[in-house]
Each structure stands twice: as structure tokens, then as C-alpha cells.
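Aim 2, interim progress. The first record below pairs a target sequence with its C-alpha cells.
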Amino acid sequence: MKIWPLKNLILIAACLSFTSCNKGEGGDARAKIVAKAGEENLTIHQFNLSFVSNGLGKDSIYNANKSIESWATESLFYQEAIKKMAEDELQIEEQILNYRKSLVNYLYQTKLIEANLDTNVTKQEIEGYFNEHRDNFILKENIVKVNYLKVPVKAPALIKIKRLVWSVNPKDMDELKTLCIQNAENYFINDSTWLFLDDIKKEIPQLKDQSDFSFYAGKVVEFTNELYYYYLKVKEVKVKNAVSPINFESKNIKKFIINNRKAQLINQYKQILLEKAKLSRTFVTY
């Protein structure tokens, strides 16, 4: 393989913006050959399209050389394949055409979806989908609703936090959330969100080895080690193999609904094109 000398590669690295370098030089400069591998040439224009310099002298020259060698490797491998493979093995034009057709169709579908798809999904639609497909929403893991706190023992508001966790007064809950924002390393206080039980157990090292059956609605865990104060109250439990709660699945259901809309939109559009072609007789069968 013929490679330009280093002095020429330096010129290449210094002239990476060939748009400006080629001004006034016409097509000859773009066709100048950088390297030859077998029966194929690499022009300075082709090199410019694939090579990106870091602008650091010797490193840039090294990278330019490696880029040319990479091109040569692929080119020589291709030429070897052409020589060694049977003619019937090289009938790839139809495959290329099919791939191009699929790619163009995909890009056009994406544009149609972006321009026409309604992505608003109502609560009623989510409920309807859930009720029609309940068998598809079976839990594979146990899930829980909890109040959970992990607060450093040196937090200034720890004493007050310990008192507030036992309160049932809504105002105290609001104050607790504020103090958690300011003091807690991690916390979760939410009345509607379901979490995987295994994720909760990972948060509290002392609970990792406890059986899932030991967790039930109303269970409270409170303890302090040398670093943190932990508080956990289990408010509700759903066990695996039961029907999953709708609010746990709402995001997935919304995705299902939107994906169905995408498919319907494209299928309807294709059907309209087919009917128009039949009427105009641009589509006929023989």
C-alpha cells in the first residue's frame, strides 16, 4: 500500500478545512490521491470527509496515518471478497434496494407521525385500556407504598423529624417534607406512588435479608446506627402474581396507546394511498 510521506501528512493535518484550501484550485485538488490500495485510490476529498484532527502535531499525523491504514484495510478486504466470492453470492442489488426502500419508508413514517400524531392520552383512555387488558398487567415483583427517611445523625433537625414521622396531622406532614428536603440524604413521602419492594430493601441494609412476607401494611421500622436515622412505614403492599395497580402501570399504558395510534395512523395513510392509486389506475394488477 502506498502512503504519503510524513511531510505530506503534515500538510493534510494542517489543511483540514479543505473547503477553504480548495478555493480557486478547481476539481484537481479534490481528486489528488492520498493513498492507493490494490485497485482503489483514496482522494484528498474522501480523506477529508472521514478524518478529524485533534490539531496536536505528531498526534495528528499519527491519527491521519491510522485513518488511511483503516481505509486501506477495508478496501483490500472488499477487493479480496469480490475476487473470491461466486457471482451468485454477489447479487446484492435487490437487497440494497429493499434496504433503501425500508429506510426511506421509516424516515417518511417518522415525519408523518411527528406532524399528525395526537399524543394526549386521557385518564379515561388509560382506565379503558387497563380494564380491557387486565391479564397483561400481572405483577412480577412485590410492590409497596411507603414513607421512608434516611437522615444523617448529625442533621440539625433530626429530633424534630423523629417526632413528626409519627404525626397524622397533614400540616405536620408538610413540615416533615420541608425538613427532609433540607436534612435528609434520601426520603420518599408520597401517598400514590408504588415502589418495588426490593428497591426499598436495598436502601436499608438491615432489611436486605428479610423475607418479603415480613412486609405488610402498617409495618414500621425505625432505628439509628452510627451514621443514619432510618424510618420506614409500609402503607400498602401488592404481591407478585396479583393484578398490578393502574397507577403503577399508567406510564406503560400511555406508551401502548400511543404506539397503537402510530400504527393506525400509518396503516390508514397507506390505505388511502392504495385507494387513490386504484382510482387513478396507477395501481393495476394483471
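The second target in this work package is listed in the same format:
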Amino acid sequence: MSSGILQIAAAAGSDLGNARRKPVVDRRPDQRMDDDWVLNRASLLSPEDRAVVEGFYSKGMTAGQLARLMGVHPGTVRRRTRDLLRHLRSPLFSFILAHRSQWSEARQQVADLHLLQRCTLRDTARRAHLTMHVVRREVEHIKARYEAMGFEPHTQPRSRAS
């Protein structure tokens, strides 16, 4: 893990999360439920992505605070958070969660690593101890099933700068 991510995790015990300039306003119940839903799904992300989402939603850190810890521009943190939320709310993410228990172990690993955690195909193959051919075949199978259920074809998310 990068040092910025470790700092975000360490900030959970510090006062950095409470160092907002404005007083914390209690959120509406439906917003709190949405936050819980996002945090629940964030547990399926890679540790780096999960730290960003948890820093923002759970610890109440601002984009500026997260950016200082990660050593990047606040706009980068805002864009990454927006992209992660879009990913968590995507129909493909929901499709995988609903159907993955019926899949083979290899297909589950590929879905988890490549489509949920957004690892590259090469990293997915390495971490799952599969060949690139098998990884590509499993991704194609998942996407074909997804499209057969009436969803739009899924495009690859933009690559991350981290």
C-alpha cells in the first residue's frame, strides 16, 4: 500500500477527520442509509480505493485533507471519489454481486479482482494464478451474461493514475 493510504488509515484514530472548518450537520436518514450502502459495497474494493471512500464517507474527511495525506491535488481526490461512486452504483457491480455465488471459483476471482477491484488483466492473472487467456475468457463470459440480461454493454473504466 502507498504511504498516503496508510496515512488515511492512521487518520481514523487522529483528530484529522474531525478537523472540519464547518460544524458537522446531521444528515437526513436517507443520506445516512446511502452512506451505509456505499461503505458496505466499498468493502469489496481494493485497499487503496476503499481507503478513499472510507476516508470521505466514514471519517468525514474533506477532499483537501485526503489530498494532503495522499500527496495529490484535491481535484484528483474528488474525481477519484466520483469515479468510485459511479463504479459502486453501476449495474455491472450489482449484477456481479447478485450472480457471483453461482459461478466457478476462477470466475469469482476474475470478477472480484478485475471487475470489482479494478485490477488490470495482468494483475488479475498473477494474483488469481490464472493465464491471461483464462482471465480474458472469464471476463468475456461475465460481460456476455450481463448483456444477455438486457443491460447495456459495459465499457472499461478509465485507468487510474495511482
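Residues 20 and 99 are 41 Å apart (CA to CA). This observation will shape the mutagenesis plan for the next reporting period.
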